[in-house]
Amino acid sequence: MNLNDYPAEPFRIKTVETVKMISREEREKVIQEAGYNTFLINSEDVYIDLLTDSGTNAMSDRQWAGMMMGDEAYAGSKNFHHLEQVVQEIFGFKHLVPTHQGRGAENLLSQIAIKPGQFVPGNMYFTTTRYHQERNGGIFVDIIRDEAHDAGLDIPFKGDIDLNKLQKLIDEKGAENIAYVCLAVTVNLAGGQPVSMKNMREVRQLADKYKINVFYDATRCVENAYFIKEREEGFAGKSIQEIVREMFSYADGCTMSGKKDCLVNIGGFLCMNDEDLFAAAKELVVVYEGMPSYGGMAGRDMEAMAIGLQESTQVEYIEHRIKQVRYLGDKLKAAGIPIIEPVGGHAVFLDARRFCPHLTQDQFPAQSLAANLYVESGVRSMERGIVSAGRDKNTGKNHAPKLETVRLTIPRRVYTYRHMDVVADAVINLYKHKEKIKGLRFVYEPRQLRFFTARFEEI
Length: 459
Prior knowledge:
The structure is a single chain. The chain is of the alpha/beta class. It has 16 helices and 14 strands. A 5-stranded mixed sheet has the order 2-8-7-6-5, sandwiched between helices. The protein has a 3-stranded antiparallel sheet with strand order 9-12-11. Helix 3 runs parallel beside helix 11 (299-312) and helix 4 (102-113) packs parallel to helix 5 (127-135). The longest helix is centred in the C-terminal third of the chain and has 20 residues, at 315-334. The radius of gyration is 21 Å and the shape is globular.
């Protein structure tokens, strides 16, 4: 590995949080009590927490200063107007509806934009997104390119929508039966894979032909913009801000979990240009979240989000962000560890099928691998496979995705390269005795979004 490929942290650390490593015997007890579900482990029992990058960011001094300027007025907060201004400048949409987090925005969009029985094509599902779509009568259809389901294939834009699949769906079901196209930038469950600008432009052109709206899941859009700058011809000389603005010029609106690329710990929003949809969203946000000028956020949170959005589009920040994740992926690849390739922008995904070839998918290899990694090292990660995929609401059978993975998700501005070394060593050591990893079975399975609270036992 050439260390010059990985830039040093573009920040100084001025506040620290002490962590501890409990013994292996204690970790074995912890994982058993948690039902082999890493979501049910107390954070104080975790040494390096890679469960998620959602809301686990370290905020900057400017963001903390902004928190002190919170205008907590029930209506018309000046922080809302600041956030609205920043979002309009960065994304170009006319209207903003703040929510408590991304799934709040997904809930609003699904209710106002989906008629029961309509289809919602998207470039691979995401758990909460699909839940809200299906809960409101939508039928999700995966139209991502086939290559996205091949963990070992290293190509630049595995997140692209397959235009032939979208055209086929329109031809078979009729444009009037398509609620909207849901385009995620980047694609989380494909391994954080980006979408090319060319693909976004072509999706827009096809949707316009049939007067179908296109809504983005913008959660990690700045990461996607960096990949476009790095990989797509004609964008190397453009700023991150310019790339983001062009990306969203091809969309009618977006949902955003501010807990990722907005560099905050809570918050989200829904954007759109359509006046009627905006009016409907404002009516519903009052029911579920709060006034249209704060949604589910305090004024101080909106101020921190506005500042975080501006910081996230600075190239020095996002280059370090992407390359710190890549550093971990490169170390694992060099050791022969099976991962999703190429490495995405927010996480390294272990390929549990190849890591645990002795386990069948219905023995939940990714769930067990995540549990065993915690026992091995105190590193917490997340299953992203058959457990996360859930069951078909009509047949009751498990969805069986081709990708069965464990996500090592890197919080923003929290850990150093040395932490990545510790994680890599832990995974490599576990791989040396991978055959000892046992399969799991449910002892408690919730009906919805089961991966959050399900409990298991070893077979």
